[in-house]
Write a structure and sequence with these properties.
- Helices cover 27% and strands 36% of the residues.
- The protein is an alpha+beta fold and 290 residues long.
- The chain has two domains: 2-110, Probable inorganic polyphosphate/atp-NAD kinase, domain 1 (Rossmann fold); 126-280, Tumour Suppressor Smad4 (Sandwich), CATH 2.60.200.
- It has a 15-stranded mixed beta sheet that branches. It has a two-stranded antiparallel sheet with strand order 10-11.
- α3 (61-73) links the parallel β3 and β4 (79-84).
- α2 (20-29) runs parallel beside α5 (101-110).
- The longest helix is centred in the last third of the chain and has 16 residues, at 221-236.
- It is elongated and about 60 Å long.
- The protein starts with a strand and ends with a strand.
Length: 290
C-alpha cells in the first residue's frame, strides 16, 4: 500500500514540519510504503506519481485547497487524509480531526472513507468556503510570520484595518433558480462550518450537497454600517438579524458591476461573474471513526 505524504513546512507556526518523521514511521509500521514531500506550490505534487492508496496532507485549509485543485487538474480520484497544522484548520475541524498531529494520523489509520462535498467556482475548487466583501480577504493579507507568531489573533488585527475600505457591493444573484438583488457588505458561501475558526454556519454539512450562504446587507450611512456589523454579531450569537440573509443552495450565479476581490480557503479567488456549484460527494476523505 502506497501513501504520498505531503506537508507544508510553513503552516501554523511550523507545525507542518515538526511531526513529519514520527508520522512517516507510524504509517510505515502500519504496513504502508510512504513517500514524503514538502509541498512546492509551483509544482503539481501528483505528476510522476501513480498507484497511490492514500494521500496524507499536513497543513491548513490553503494547503488542502492546493492539493485538491492539483488532484482535480489531473482527473484523479484519490483517498485523502488530513492532519491539521494550519492556523484555523476549518475544514479538518468540520471532519472531526484532532489538532494533535499524531492523534490525527492515528485517526486516519483507524478511520473510514466518506464521500465529502466539494465546491467549485469558475473552474477552481474549494473545500471550506468561498467569500468576498469585508473581512473575507483578511487571510490573504495577513503576513505569514504574524500568523506563525500569534495564530488566529493575527486575522483579527488585520481585519480591523479593513474598516477603512468598507463598501457595499451590488449583486444580482440566482440560487437554484430563484433570482434576487442584494446590496452586500459580505458574502460567505460555506461548504464547511467555520471561517477563521469562527462559527458562522454551525448547521452546515459537508455531506448534504448544499452550500450554506450568508449575506450581510449594507445599510445606509455610517450608522447603517454599524447596524450591519451588529447584525452579523447577532448572527454569530445565534440570533436572527434583518441585516443577514441566510439561504441554502446547490448552484449559485452572482454578477455585479464591481469585480470584487474574492477568497477561496484563504487564497486568492475567482473573478466576477461567478458560477458556484456544490459537487456532492466529490471527495473521498478518511474521517475519524466515532
Amino acid at each position: 500500500m502506497k501513501v504520498l505524504f505531503l506537508y507544508n513546512p510553513q503552516s501554523g507556526k511550523g507545525k507542518g514540519e515538526v511531526s513529519v518523521r514520527r508520522v512517516r514511521e507510524l504509517f510505515r509500521d502500519a504496513g504502508y510504503k510512504v513517500t514524503v514531500h514538502a509541498i512546492d506550490f509551483r509544482k503539481n505534487p501528483f505528476e510522476g506519481v501513480d498507484d497511490l492508496d492514500l494521500v496524507v496532507i499536513a497543513g491548513g485549509d490553503g494547503t488542502v485547497n492546493y492539493v485538491v485543485n492539483r488532484m482535480m487538474e489531473l482527473g484523479l480520484n484519490l483517498r485523502l487524509g488530513i492532519i491539521p497544522s494550519g492556523t484555523a484548520n476549518d475544514f479538518s475541524r468540520a471532519l472531526g480531526m484532532s489538532i494533535d498531529p499524531m492523534r490525527a494520523a492515528r485517526q486516519i489509520l483507524d478511520g473510514h472513507e466518506e464521500r465529502i462535498d466539494c465546491g467549485r467556482v469558475n473552474g477552481s475548487y474549494f473545500v471550506n468556503i468561498f467569500s468576498f466583501g469585508i473581512f473575507t480577504t483578511t487571510s490573504q493579507r495577513t503576513p505569514d510570520d504574524l500568523k506563525h507568531r500569534i495564530g488566529k489573533l493575527a486575522y483579527i488585527i488585520e481585519g480591523v484595518k479593513e474598516f477603512r475600505a468598507m463598501h457595499g457591493i451590488p449583486l444580482q444573484i440566482q440560487a437554484d433558480g430563484e433570482s434576487f438583488d442584494f446590496h452586500s457588505l459580505m458574502a460567505l458561501i460555506f461548504n464547511g462550518e467555520t471561517a477563521g475558526g469562527f462559527h458562522l454556519a454551525p448547521r452546515s454539512s459537508l455531506k448534504d450537497g448544499l452550500f450554506d450562504c450568508v449575506l450581510l446587507e449594507k445599510q445606509r450611512g455610517w450608522r447603517g454600517y454599524w447596524r450591519s456589523i451588529c447584525g452579523m454579531i447577532l448572527h454569530l450569537l445565534g440570533s436572527k438579524a434583518r441585516e443577514v440573509r441566510h439561504f441554502r443552495a446547490a448552484t449559485i450565479d452572482i454578477t455585479s458591476p464591481l469585480n470584487e476581490p474574492t477568497d477561496v480557503d484563504g487564497q486568492k479567488g475567482a473573478d466576477f461573474p461567478l458560477h458556484i456549484e456544490c459537487l456532492a460527494g466529490a471527495l473521498r476523505v478518511v474521517c475519524p471513526t466515532r
